């Protein structure tokens, strides 16, 4: 888990990395989102992550509101970890990272194809402006939020 090393940064990306920037974090989220993994042992077996590392990540996700921990069944000693709305909102992040990896880090081609559950079509992410146009990454500029910087 990253320490609070970005405290001097007024940057939402840096703050997001404080929550999901550790090596195993997005893999855990990916398994929860796309493989419906909810149990500690299933995360551990499918990812091969050390138990102590997994326990720390899951505990931190619960503390950060990305997941909730609840009994697997009434009266059960087994727990499951379910994504909250905050955790499910990471889906487009995982999709974008997967597409980047397909293009730049998968020498043998994409290991999976992301498809629309409704029609089976392949998923493509785009950056769309309020005006309705799809824009390239080079057309995006960071405009400081003047209400935060005024004063």
TrEMBL record:
Keywords from the named record: DNA-binding, Transcription, Transcription regulation
Domain of life: Bacteria
Molecular-function GO terms, alphabetical: DNA binding
Residues covered by the HTH hxlR-type domain: 11-109
Pfam families for the chain: HxlR
Protein's name in the database: Putative HTH-type transcriptional regulator
Organism: Nocardia aurantia
């Amino acid at each position: 888990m990253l320490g609070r090393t970005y405290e001097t940064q007024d940057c939402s990306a840096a703050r997001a990395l404080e929550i999901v920037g550790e090596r195993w974090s997005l893999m855990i989220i990916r398994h929860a989102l796309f493989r419906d993994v909810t149990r500690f042992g299933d995360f551990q077996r499918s990812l091969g992550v050390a138990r102590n590392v997994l326990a720390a990540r899951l505990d931190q996700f619960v503390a950060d509101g990305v997941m909730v921990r609840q009994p697997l069944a009434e009266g059960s000693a087994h727990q499951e970890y379910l994504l909250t709305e905050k955790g499910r909102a990471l889906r487009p992040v995982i999709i974008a990272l997967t597409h980047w990896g397909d293009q730049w880090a998968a020498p043998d081609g994409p290991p999976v194809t992301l498809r629309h559950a409704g029609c089976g079509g392949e998923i493509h992410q785009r950056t769309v402006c309020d005006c309705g146009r799809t824009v390239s990454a080079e057309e995006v500029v960071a405009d400081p939020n003047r209400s935060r910087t005024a004063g």
